[in-house]
Amino acid sequence: MSDPSNEPGERTGRRWNQGLRGVLWVCGVALVIHVIPLFLPRNMPEQELAIARATDNVEGRLRFLVPLKHNDKATAADLRAAAELLREGAPAEAHDLALEAERRDPNALETQLLLARICDRERMSRCVEQALGKARKLAPADPRAELLRADLSEVKGDVEGATSALAQAYSVAPGDPLVGVRYGRLLSRVGRPQEALKVFHSLEGRVPAARLLVEQGLVLTREGRNREAVGLLQQAVQKDPKLAEGHFQLGIAWFQLGNENAAEEALRQADRLDVSDTRALGMLCTLQVKAGRFEGARQTRTDLERRFPQRMDAIREQCRLP
After folding, report:
1. Are 316 and 280 in contact (CB under 8 A)?
2. Phi–psi pair at 204, nearest 5 degrees
3. 169: exposed, middle or buried (C-beta count within 10 Å: 0-12, 13-18, 19+)?
4. Which of its termini does the chain have fewer beta carbons within 10 Å around, N or C?
5. Which residues pair with 204 in a beta bridge?
6. What's the CA gap between 222 and 187, in Å, rounded?
7. Domain 46-162 CATH assignment equals 1.25.40.10
8. In the CATH scheme, what is the code of domain 212-276?
9. What is the rounded distance in angstroms from the CA atom of residue 47 to the CA atom of residue 81?
10. Sign of the CA dihedral 301, 303, 306, 307?
11. What pTM does this model have?
């Protein structure tokens, strides 16, 4: 007579119970591993910063970040990170943290740049100047202090101040392509095209040739020299056929010359090269309206709305149909 304990159903149930106990044991161990840190003292700056980053409101962040000022384990970098998290919502507390970061590491350029931004948020112009002055003394060959000055000036609408700051940054780092391109664009914007072209020429070999041709073409377009601009922009897209910005600017220049078909072709090519950008079709729609080609504009706007339903209001604002 067979042993009932050896019946297939009995053996299956026993194996299932053993498997379930194994799963529960693994889950229990994982739970303990995750819960134990909650009961340990949180005196490490990294922990406070991580919690603050996960906290949406400023009041909640203050509770974790302000005590870092008195935490001996907090480095200047930790204090700067904390100040950055509070800069918008609690600039006074951010200022205190940044000053403590300066005390712990007086030679950190990053601290002075952060202090300048915090002081600007607090509308303390003298404090901004002091921080930027210290930044220049700490790193005279680093253009970041003047680039920040240019940023702050542009936000206030002080184009002259921004131009002066970028001129200084360019003199400090003439070979920096980002500094040079930005300076050249601003020179063009303030009506100094020859100086802008000179800056762009100085960047040859440091910036892709097609990109430089686009920048030079934009200077000429701003000056109304559209035929010359078209020539440069055509060279740009020949050198780099996948440069969407080149086709985009070429389309605008062609329209200024009255060649609407060439303008549409260039803008559609720009759109094909970067389907995530609404600018090309948005510009095409605007130009079609200006040219009185309302049926084409209506179709272009419909295509945009279908592809970017979340931006429908902005699209309709940009391309208004009669």
Report:
1. no
2. -60, 130
3. buried
4. N
5. 207
6. 11
7. yes
8. 1.25.40.10
9. 12
10. negative
11. 0.77
